[in-house]
Amino acid sequence: MTGGAVARASAAVFVAAMLQAVIVSSLVIGGGAPDLLLIVVVSVGLLRGSIPGAAYGFTAGLVVDLLTLETLGITSLVLTLAGFWAGRYVETTGRGRRLAPLLAVGVITVLAGAFAFVLHYMLGSEVVARHALVTSLAPTLLLNLLLALPVYALVRASVREPERFERSPEVEVLV
Q1: What is the pTM for the complete model shown?
Q2: Backbone torsions φ then ψ of 82, nearest 5 degrees
């Protein structure tokens, strides 16, 4: 990855983290809120691979944890695993599939919600399982799936490196 691609991906993740903390998390529709940052991290993981996906997930989660003053590290850990899972999916079976963003966002939304619930439970936070795993997760899943393809296309357009064609220095004709 070139320096420009790293800067563009960092900017996309930072803008998504700011939007998630300031605007998107307060948009509750049907009992759930869309998770724009999760979709962006999954998109970066799908486009760049598991290690960059995990790194961008960690930094995005850290930014959100610092902005919202919640328990430091929970969002970071969840988004680190989300970026890693998306990267591993595309590295193993998802490369070249048209619906890979939808499948990855759907599965990772459910896994991230369950993992966040387990982390909160292990830390002693009072979280109602029915609310965390059913009431708010179902609308969040639907909203994330609706946003998955447009956000993926936007991230792909901003993060993708321009394709370079290697020129052949000379052509030799063999007879």
Answers
A1: 0.85
A2: -65, -45
